[in-house]
Amino acid sequence: MMKRRHGIAVATALAAILALAAATTAPAPSSVQAASEQSTPSVENGKQLYDRYCAACHYPATTAKKIGPGLKAIYSRGKFEDGTPVNDPTLRRWIEKGGKNMPGFEKSLTPQQIADVIAYLKTL
Question: Binning pLDDT at 50, 70 and 90, where does residue 38 land?
């Protein structure tokens, strides 16, 4: 009887320790969330975000128009269609506020996620 009580006490203590460990260890966030919490722009996360939010309207590998203009070499082209120079602040503003036929993503994407998209666009 004594051994059984001791075994139950040990099992109960082990269960309590495991429950405490599980409660203090946060589940791993998704790759998009994890990368968006970084302070350094992430090209990989930017590509995932681009695929999710931008690819429906913009081709990444050509300058051909889809719904909006293709974004290949957007930085080396130097200007948006309206003549505005392409740089980080103007591209950030365009993504946040939108323009012409493009909706703004200020409420859909965090500032870090926008930085990630810009980092990806620089690779096109």
Answer: low
Contact of 78 with 85, CB cutoff 8 Å: yes
Mean pLDDT, the chain, whole residue set = 79
Question: Angle between the 111-121 and 88-97 helix axes, to the nearest 10 degrees?
Answer: 120
Whole-number Å distance between alpha carbons of 89 and 35: 21
Contact 117, 49 (CB under 8 A): yes
3-state SS, residue 20: helix
The CATH number assigned to the domain holding 86 equals: 1.10.760.10
Residue found by looking up tokens 């075994």 in the block = 7
| 37 pLDDT tier (thresholds 50, 70, 90) | low
**The CA-based dihedral angle spanning residues 112, 117, 123, 124, taken in that order and rounded to the nearest 10 degrees:** -170
For 47-66, give the DSSP string: HHHIIIIITTT--SS-S--S
Residue 64 has φ and ψ, to the nearest 5°, of -60, 145
| Cβ–Cβ < 8 Å for 97, 104 | yes
Full residue range of the structural domain in which residue 48 is found: 31-121
